[in-house]
Specification:
The chain is of the alpha+beta class. A hairpin with a 2-residue loop joins strand 1 and strand 2.
């Protein structure tokens, strides 16, 4: 948070706010610890933890957190940065659209569900198409804000491909808005991050929007 002219300005850091010792425990140690804490949460809510349907829930939740929903916090799951030489000299934009996004709002720990549209222009390197999906999934699988997620996807591709021309648009529903608070089930949130010619060239930006179906 910055202060400017006595007004507070909230900014989004591109890095996920992690402690320096975030990886000091093994996955199994984390699962065991979360299992105990979640048992106490359910017990505090008044649930009968001896019920057959509930007694294994803390373990299931703990494994889901570590192995699935928040697996993007584990650096060992980082997608490999394998790229290929652009031998065919393709110099137009490449777009992977309608990539499914499943993430978790870091403010209320409720789901963010939507679609990501990612494009880049090669500067001599290309990446396998599934790698783009894997990058989106990796950064989505952690507590997030949508703005940061959008920027992390672009920064990752920029570094991997060594190109300045990358774009990402995410259109997603936030259950912290849809299912609680204002309970607006119709609204969705759109975030964009453009660098290079996607940012500086209106014609290229319009072409990208056309291909992903945004007028």
């Amino acid at each position: 948070m910055e202060e400017k002219n006595n007004k507070k300005i909230y900014s989004v850091n591109k890095k996920t706010p992690l402690r320096n010792n975030a990886c000091y425990m093994s996955e199994e140690e984390k699962i065991n610890k979360i299992e105990k804490h979640f048992f106490h949460i359910m017990n505090t809510l008044g649930l009968d933890m001896n019920d057959d349907s509930l007694k294994k829930t803390p373990r299931r939740v703990a494994k889901m957190f570590i192995k699935e929903i928040f697996s993007g916090l584990n650096p060992n799951t980082t997608p490999k940065s394998s790229t290929f030489e652009n031998k065919y000299k393709y110099n137009q934009m490449l777009i992977e659209k309608n990539i499914t996004v499943y993430s978790t709002c870091e403010h209320h720990f409720l789901p963010i569900v939507g679609k990501a549209h990612v494009g880049y222009i090669s500067n001599g390197k290309v990446v396998g198409l599934s790698k783009i999906n894997r990058i989106v999934n990796f950064y989505a699988r952690r507590p997030q804000v949508q703005e940061r997620l959008t920027m992390q996807i672009v920064k990752s591709l920029q570094d991997m491909l060594e190109t300045k021309d990358v774009a990402c648009v995410i259109d997603a529903k936030h259950l912290c808005v849809n299912s609680r608070g204002i309970r607006d089930i119709e609204s969705s949130t759109i975030t964009t991050e453009f660098i290079g010619s996607f940012k500086n060239n209106p014609e290229i930006r319009r072409e990208f929007f056309h291909y992903i179906g945004i007028p």
